[in-house]
Amino acid sequence: MMKNILTAICLCISIASQSQIKTVNIQASGLTCSMCSNSINKALKSIPYVDNVVANIKNSTFEISFKSVDNISFDLLKKKVEDAGFFVAKMEVTMLFDNVKISNEQHLEINGLMYHFLNVPEKIINGYQVVRILDKGFVSSKEYKKNQKYTTMDCYRTGVMGAYCNKKEKTAGTRIYHVTVS
């Protein structure tokens, strides 16, 4: 009986961890017409785990939903926009949080990805929250430079964790996304 209960708990935890990311919103720069928007739309839809892309030509934004949230790569989404000939001006991720305590300069692993929170007050977050990626290539150069004042850690510049970022040596060299909660 106890074994069945533990199995059920593990299954529930597994399901919950797979539902962390709901959508990604990308604002692209350099678009001038509907053909530009169509080019990005096609590029994003070519990613196997992308379910749907809804384009808003007026705002140059693309809302992406997923078939599966396993192994989502924000870098691949950015690359697809760049391969279509444009740049990412803003990337926002709608994520589900369940009593997660965040604070400035905190590293947190969510659904297999590492996040470094910048410019956030210490608080507990619940429900769906919009998290904005602040890394180079995900924001303007001006905003990237502005955000440097919120951290003294080298991982903001390199995009990967150093051994000093976390006491767990196995995380050194791991891709890390620098984010703030909108």
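The record above closes out task 2.4. Task 2.5 opens with a second protein, given below.
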Amino acid sequence: MKSLNAFLQVLNSAEQNIKHMASDAKIVRQLNDSGRMDEAYAVSLRLAKYAERTALQARVLPVNTNRPMAFREVEEIMENNIPVDIEFTAEGWFRVSLPALLPKKEFNSRNYIRAYLYPALQRFFSEHEPVRYEDAVLIFRHVYNRDRPERQKRDHDNIEVNTVADAVALFVLADDSPTFCSHYYCSAEGNADYTQVYVVPRGDFPQWLLVEALMEDSAGRKYAV
């Protein structure tokens, strides 16, 4: 009975969020049609918030049925819809590329990141030799679509990086204490929103800065992924 109650509780909450989404989508369309884009922007942000909450609830719902394969099947859905690119660069640096900007530090943002990042890292290292960087710099490179208004860009301390740092540290760092791992944050402009996370040996960090500068094309308008 307890699991059934949990199932219905999540379902009821998801249904409420879907109603909010439908209402806000209608409002956004009306505001767009009347040319009131500042208001459309504000309501679309609220719509995005309800969408994120609903996505989290939709992932939990099958698991709450207690079917034995539910968790793995939900993971497979996420694999197909949230591609995470993980690789070692030609320089030997570890890199994770996420197909969107990291969310703000809000309720459920940590669960959202854990739900797709940990399984992706586990899959990668099931096929690659494990690695441990003894003394490294953990780099967060936030790339914003250059068409974004300046006011939509966020301060680095308002971005959910701790959960990503914990996940990456678990898989590739010998120790994530300040003695053995430093953090570096930077932003750039590109053709789309995405986030890159690098783990670079401390001695290679000056080289990474040079490489990062060369990611901009000769016209100074595009950053490569």
